[in-house]
Specification:
Blueprint (H helix, E strand, L loop, with lengths): L2 H10 L4 H10 L18 H11 L5 H8 L4 H17 L3 H13 L7 H5 L2 H9 L5 H7 L4 H10 L1 H5 L4 H10 L5 H17 L1 H11 L5 H7 L5 H8 L4
Helix pairs in contact: 1-3, 3-5, 4-5, 5-6, 8-10, 9-10, 10-13, 12-13, 13-14, 13-15
Length: 237
Protein backbone atom coordinates (compact mmCIF):
# COMPACT_ATOMS: atom_id res chain seq x y z
CA UNK A 1 0.00 0.00 0.00
CA UNK A 2 1.48 3.35 -1.01
CA UNK A 3 1.62 6.29 1.37
CA UNK A 4 -1.44 8.10 -0.02
CA UNK A 5 -3.55 5.01 0.53
CA UNK A 6 -2.06 4.64 4.02
CA UNK A 7 -3.05 8.21 4.87
CA UNK A 8 -6.55 7.75 3.51
CA UNK A 9 -6.93 4.52 5.45
CA UNK A 10 -5.76 6.22 8.66
CA UNK A 11 -8.17 9.13 8.13
CA UNK A 12 -10.97 6.63 7.58
CA UNK A 13 -10.45 5.23 11.09
CA UNK A 14 -11.78 8.54 12.43
CA UNK A 15 -14.97 8.64 10.36
CA UNK A 16 -18.05 9.84 12.22
CA UNK A 17 -21.20 9.08 10.24
CA UNK A 18 -23.32 11.62 12.15
CA UNK A 19 -20.76 14.31 11.39
CA UNK A 20 -20.68 13.22 7.75
CA UNK A 21 -24.42 13.83 7.52
CA UNK A 22 -24.09 17.38 8.88
CA UNK A 23 -21.00 18.67 7.06
CA UNK A 24 -22.47 18.90 3.53
CA UNK A 25 -25.04 21.38 4.82
CA UNK A 26 -22.48 23.29 6.88
CA UNK A 27 -20.17 23.68 3.87
CA UNK A 28 -23.03 24.14 1.40
CA UNK A 29 -22.22 21.10 -0.71
CA UNK A 30 -25.84 20.96 -1.89
CA UNK A 31 -26.96 22.01 -5.38
CA UNK A 32 -26.50 25.74 -5.80
CA UNK A 33 -24.29 26.05 -2.70
CA UNK A 34 -20.77 27.43 -2.76
CA UNK A 35 -19.40 23.93 -2.08
CA UNK A 36 -21.70 22.16 -4.51
CA UNK A 37 -20.67 18.57 -5.21
CA UNK A 38 -18.09 18.23 -2.44
CA UNK A 39 -17.99 14.94 -0.54
CA UNK A 40 -17.54 14.45 3.22
CA UNK A 41 -16.84 11.41 5.36
CA UNK A 42 -17.10 13.12 8.76
CA UNK A 43 -13.60 13.50 10.23
CA UNK A 44 -12.79 16.28 12.69
CA UNK A 45 -10.04 18.85 12.15
CA UNK A 46 -8.00 17.75 15.21
CA UNK A 47 -7.92 14.19 13.88
CA UNK A 48 -6.91 15.38 10.41
CA UNK A 49 -4.10 17.41 11.94
CA UNK A 50 -3.00 14.37 13.92
CA UNK A 51 -2.74 12.30 10.74
CA UNK A 52 -0.94 15.10 8.89
CA UNK A 53 1.63 15.48 11.67
CA UNK A 54 2.29 11.74 11.55
CA UNK A 55 3.02 11.63 7.83
CA UNK A 56 4.31 15.01 6.62
CA UNK A 57 7.99 14.11 7.10
CA UNK A 58 7.75 10.99 4.98
CA UNK A 59 5.44 11.89 2.11
CA UNK A 60 6.83 13.29 -1.14
CA UNK A 61 5.33 16.44 -2.63
CA UNK A 62 4.07 14.52 -5.66
CA UNK A 63 2.08 12.27 -3.32
CA UNK A 64 0.72 15.26 -1.40
CA UNK A 65 -0.46 16.57 -4.75
CA UNK A 66 -2.32 13.30 -5.36
CA UNK A 67 -4.03 13.60 -1.98
CA UNK A 68 -4.92 17.21 -2.70
CA UNK A 69 -6.82 16.13 -5.80
CA UNK A 70 -9.00 13.59 -4.01
CA UNK A 71 -12.78 14.18 -4.19
CA UNK A 72 -13.17 13.74 -0.40
CA UNK A 73 -13.00 17.08 1.41
CA UNK A 74 -11.18 15.71 4.46
CA UNK A 75 -8.44 14.17 2.33
CA UNK A 76 -7.81 17.54 0.68
CA UNK A 77 -7.75 19.31 4.04
CA UNK A 78 -5.24 16.77 5.38
CA UNK A 79 -3.10 17.38 2.29
CA UNK A 80 -3.13 21.11 3.00
CA UNK A 81 -2.15 20.55 6.63
CA UNK A 82 0.75 18.43 5.36
CA UNK A 83 1.83 21.22 2.99
CA UNK A 84 1.71 23.73 5.83
CA UNK A 85 3.84 21.51 8.09
CA UNK A 86 6.30 20.90 5.26
CA UNK A 87 6.51 24.63 4.52
CA UNK A 88 7.12 25.51 8.17
CA UNK A 89 9.93 22.95 8.41
CA UNK A 90 11.48 23.68 4.99
CA UNK A 91 15.18 24.51 5.32
CA UNK A 92 15.66 26.66 2.22
CA UNK A 93 13.88 28.90 -0.25
CA UNK A 94 13.96 26.30 -3.01
CA UNK A 95 12.06 23.79 -0.93
CA UNK A 96 9.52 26.42 0.05
CA UNK A 97 9.13 27.49 -3.56
CA UNK A 98 8.36 23.89 -4.55
CA UNK A 99 5.63 23.76 -1.91
CA UNK A 100 4.16 27.07 -3.08
CA UNK A 101 4.26 25.94 -6.71
CA UNK A 102 2.37 22.79 -5.71
CA UNK A 103 -0.19 24.89 -3.85
CA UNK A 104 -0.73 27.22 -6.79
CA UNK A 105 -0.78 24.45 -9.37
CA UNK A 106 -3.61 22.79 -7.43
CA UNK A 107 -5.42 25.95 -6.37
CA UNK A 108 -8.71 24.63 -7.77
CA UNK A 109 -8.65 21.99 -5.04
CA UNK A 110 -8.57 24.70 -2.36
CA UNK A 111 -12.26 25.21 -2.86
CA UNK A 112 -14.00 25.91 0.41
CA UNK A 113 -13.47 28.47 3.13
CA UNK A 114 -11.90 26.06 5.64
CA UNK A 115 -9.42 24.86 3.03
CA UNK A 116 -8.47 28.47 2.24
CA UNK A 117 -8.31 29.60 5.85
CA UNK A 118 -6.13 26.64 6.88
CA UNK A 119 -3.49 27.28 4.25
CA UNK A 120 -3.46 30.63 2.44
CA UNK A 121 -1.65 32.81 4.99
CA UNK A 122 0.57 29.99 6.22
CA UNK A 123 1.86 29.05 2.76
CA UNK A 124 1.25 31.78 0.19
CA UNK A 125 1.24 34.72 2.57
CA UNK A 126 4.37 33.58 4.37
CA UNK A 127 6.19 33.01 1.08
CA UNK A 128 5.22 36.34 -0.48
CA UNK A 129 5.89 38.58 2.50
CA UNK A 130 9.19 39.93 1.14
CA UNK A 131 8.37 39.28 -2.54
CA UNK A 132 6.24 40.57 -5.37
CA UNK A 133 2.61 40.21 -4.29
CA UNK A 134 0.95 40.84 -7.65
CA UNK A 135 -0.54 37.33 -7.72
CA UNK A 136 -2.71 38.26 -4.75
CA UNK A 137 -4.08 41.26 -6.64
CA UNK A 138 -4.70 39.03 -9.66
CA UNK A 139 -6.61 36.62 -7.44
CA UNK A 140 -8.60 39.46 -5.88
CA UNK A 141 -9.67 40.65 -9.33
CA UNK A 142 -10.49 37.17 -10.61
CA UNK A 143 -14.02 35.82 -10.92
CA UNK A 144 -13.26 32.82 -8.70
CA UNK A 145 -14.62 33.08 -5.15
CA UNK A 146 -11.88 30.92 -3.63
CA UNK A 147 -9.04 32.76 -5.35
CA UNK A 148 -10.55 35.99 -4.04
CA UNK A 149 -10.71 34.62 -0.51
CA UNK A 150 -7.14 33.32 -0.83
CA UNK A 151 -6.10 36.86 -1.79
CA UNK A 152 -7.44 38.48 1.36
CA UNK A 153 -6.68 35.64 3.81
CA UNK A 154 -3.08 35.37 2.58
CA UNK A 155 -2.54 38.86 3.92
CA UNK A 156 -3.20 37.61 7.45
CA UNK A 157 0.49 36.69 7.52
CA UNK A 158 1.38 40.29 6.63
CA UNK A 159 -0.94 41.61 9.31
CA UNK A 160 0.85 39.48 11.92
CA UNK A 161 4.06 41.24 10.86
CA UNK A 162 2.31 44.63 11.27
CA UNK A 163 2.25 45.18 7.52
CA UNK A 164 -1.25 46.38 6.60
CA UNK A 165 -1.04 48.10 3.21
CA UNK A 166 -1.75 45.05 1.05
CA UNK A 167 -4.71 44.01 3.18
CA UNK A 168 -6.22 47.47 2.85
CA UNK A 169 -5.65 47.63 -0.91
CA UNK A 170 -7.14 44.18 -1.47
CA UNK A 171 -10.05 45.07 0.83
CA UNK A 172 -10.78 48.03 -1.46
CA UNK A 173 -10.86 45.71 -4.48
CA UNK A 174 -13.29 43.37 -2.71
CA UNK A 175 -15.37 45.94 -0.84
CA UNK A 176 -18.34 45.64 -3.20
CA UNK A 177 -18.22 41.86 -3.51
CA UNK A 178 -21.63 40.20 -3.59
CA UNK A 179 -20.85 37.05 -1.58
CA UNK A 180 -21.31 36.75 2.17
CA UNK A 181 -18.12 34.67 2.51
CA UNK A 182 -16.09 37.57 1.16
CA UNK A 183 -17.88 40.05 3.42
CA UNK A 184 -16.89 37.91 6.40
CA UNK A 185 -13.33 37.35 5.18
CA UNK A 186 -12.59 41.01 4.51
CA UNK A 187 -14.26 42.11 7.75
CA UNK A 188 -12.23 39.56 9.69
CA UNK A 189 -8.93 40.81 8.24
CA UNK A 190 -9.85 44.43 8.97
CA UNK A 191 -10.64 43.43 12.55
CA UNK A 192 -7.24 41.74 12.80
CA UNK A 193 -5.60 44.98 11.70
CA UNK A 194 -7.54 46.82 14.40
CA UNK A 195 -6.38 44.33 17.01
CA UNK A 196 -2.84 45.53 16.27
CA UNK A 197 -3.39 49.16 15.29
CA UNK A 198 -6.82 50.59 16.03
CA UNK A 199 -6.17 53.86 14.20
CA UNK A 200 -5.28 52.17 10.91
CA UNK A 201 -8.54 50.23 10.93
CA UNK A 202 -10.57 53.21 12.14
CA UNK A 203 -9.26 55.48 9.41
CA UNK A 204 -9.97 52.89 6.72
CA UNK A 205 -13.50 52.31 8.02
CA UNK A 206 -14.20 56.02 8.37
CA UNK A 207 -13.45 56.46 4.68
CA UNK A 208 -15.18 53.30 3.43
CA UNK A 209 -17.82 52.02 5.85
CA UNK A 210 -20.78 53.62 4.11
CA UNK A 211 -20.18 51.54 0.97
CA UNK A 212 -19.42 48.31 2.82
CA UNK A 213 -21.84 45.39 2.99
CA UNK A 214 -23.38 45.25 6.46
CA UNK A 215 -21.81 41.89 7.33
CA UNK A 216 -18.35 43.13 6.40
CA UNK A 217 -18.78 46.15 8.66
CA UNK A 218 -20.14 44.10 11.55
CA UNK A 219 -17.18 41.72 11.40
CA UNK A 220 -14.74 44.64 11.21
CA UNK A 221 -16.12 46.50 14.24
CA UNK A 222 -16.85 43.50 16.42
CA UNK A 223 -14.19 44.46 19.01
CA UNK A 224 -15.01 48.19 19.07
CA UNK A 225 -16.48 49.81 22.18
CA UNK A 226 -20.31 49.57 22.08
CA UNK A 227 -20.88 53.29 21.58
CA UNK A 228 -18.45 53.53 18.69
CA UNK A 229 -19.84 50.36 17.15
CA UNK A 230 -23.34 51.84 17.21
CA UNK A 231 -22.13 55.06 15.59
CA UNK A 232 -20.72 53.07 12.69
CA UNK A 233 -23.88 50.98 12.36
CA UNK A 234 -26.07 54.11 12.39
CA UNK A 235 -23.85 56.00 9.93
CA UNK A 236 -22.87 58.67 12.43
CA UNK A 237 -19.10 58.68 12.00
Amino acid sequence: MDIVEQIKEKINTYVDEEKAAVLPRYFQAFEGGYGEGDQFIGVSVPNLRKVARSYYRYIEITDVERLLNEPIHEYRLAALFILVYKFEKAKDGGEKETIVDTYLRNIRSVNNWDLVDSSADKILGAFLFNKDKSILYDFARSSNLWEQRIAIISTFYFIKQNHFDDTLEIAKILINHNHDLMHKGVGWMLREIGNRDFHVEFNFLRDNYKVMPRTMLRYAIEKFEPDLRQKFLKGLI
